[in-house]
Amino acid sequence: MRSSRQKREQVKQFKRLTEAQAALGWGVILLLSTLLGVIYLSQASGIATVGLRVQNLQADLELIKRDNSALERQIAEAQSLERLQQEALRLGFVQAQADQIEYLVVPDYPVTPDTLEPEVTPTVSVPPAETIGDVLWLSLRSSVSRMIYGEASEQ
């Protein structure tokens, strides 16, 4: 009898052990599911926060671009010749006459090619060509004159 009783006890212990293992397994599954949910929500929240910050920065950028355009327009208006002339007149400036202008000569001032006046190349007025021969002649004449004056071909 003892062996039958021991077997029943062992079966009961085995059932309790199996139920405990099942409960522990479900507990681990529930814990892992909760952990994964928390990680997912944390990542989604972080991404949403970064997205909102990017949108705010883009809105700020657009506002700054509009302000910059307005400032550029104000600068252009402030630099217009008409406005500068009006401001000069308001401050009491008058336009100088030719006899009122004095030029100063600075002795030993180094002269660089940038300060010299640019060399003016003569321009030839060309009558309109009427025939293909005229066109060829004008083209040849233009090429020769460009070679003489050292101008590069623009073709």
Name the helix and strand elements from N-terminus to C-terminus, one letter apiece.
HHH
Structural class: mainly alpha
What is the averaged pLDDT score?
84
- Strand proportion: under 5%
How would you describe the shape? elongated
* Largest sheet features: none
Helix content estimate = 55-70%
Total E-strand runs: 0
Provide the low-confidence segments as ranges. Answer: none
How many helix segments?
Answer: 3
Radius of gyration over all CA atoms, rounded: 46 Å
First-residue to last-residue Cα separation:
118 Å
Description of the structure:
With about 160 residues, the protein is mainly α. The chain has a domain at about 1-85. It is about 70% helix and about 0% strand. It contains three helices and no strands. The chain has helices at about 1-80, 80-90, 130-150. The longest helix has about 80 residues, at about 1-80.
Strands, helices and their partners?
Elements: H1 2-78, H2 81-90, H3 132-149
Name the features.
68% helix, mainly alpha, 155 residues, 0% strand
Tell me briefly what this model is.
The protein is an all-alpha fold and 155 residues long. It has a domain of 84 residues.
